[in-house]
Chromate transport protein
Amino acid sequence: MVMELFIVFFKIGLFTFGGGYAMIPLIKTEVLSHGWATVGEIIDFIGISESTPGPFAINIATFIGFDHSSLIGAFSATLGVVLPSFIIIILISKFFFNFQDNKYVQAVLAGLRPAVVGTIAASAMTIFASVFILKGKLTNYTGLMILAVVLLLKLKFKEMHPIVLIIISGFLGYLFYGPLAGVI
């Protein structure tokens, strides 16, 4: 089981280009196919990983590994997700400066950028649907209101730290799902 965690997260680390958020679809597919978590739990892992200091990819691998196999699972998944990048960076640092101006290398990188944006957008749509849509109908109007407030704050105050937005969201969630539930 622990070796399986390592192999899965090594594969995720190896085939993800564009940072932690770009790996969400692959994490979702792998974790669901292995039965390590539900979609709801994956969304919780994403939220916790975003809220915790440190790189998203390391955080989510650590949390999923820990949830699955305690400390050894956390270590195994974390090592798996980090090792490919470490190896690739070592290799790139040896050769990149010789090829950075190569038109073919530039063409490949230019082609990867839109794919990264598309992958992140697809992840956002999947998360949105699992939080706000039930049986094909929009159902979570309170959550949509909280999302709208957070989006407006981020658009208005671009430099606002994500932790501030998370705290505001948590407070609004407490209010609207707690004392004010059903009032608004």
